[in-house]
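Re: weekly structure request thread

Next one in the queue (149 aa):
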Amino acid sequence: KSQKICKFFNSVPRGCNKGSKCNHAHVHKSRKDVSNYGLDSKLKLFNAYQKSFGKKLNVRDFQLLQMKSDGKDWYTTGFQCLKENTIYYTSGSPHSIESKQGIFWYKNSEDALKNIFQTILDAFQARGIAHADEGIHSKQRGSYISDLD
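Done, posted below.
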């Protein structure tokens, strides 16, 4: 049986006041253009998540999907918050294409992952869970996206 989507979750300004106790699915609707993602988005998100929820994230917590279209591979990513049960999907950028179902697909898995990190980080920042300048330690600044594991 599929779960209905909560009609209050994305409403402004409060959203759903039931939080993780809501009987309906909370699906984050992000803005269409998240083109400002960078290497530090992962570090900021992972640090903010641990600070806010007491849980360490791992790249394996994210669902990476692949499809073939016109002989090319395309990738998208999803994530369900382990504490709040909110579902997040990649959002659009100049590097993506949008399917008829409204899912954004990327030419490589790294861009799909970087996008979801920034999409969730933006949502957390909008809710006051994370701040743009927190979560980056000087020794981590040199990390590369190949460090995703």
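The chain has a mean pLDDT of 79. Strands lie at 63-69, 72-80, 87-89, 96-98, 104-106.
Next request, please.
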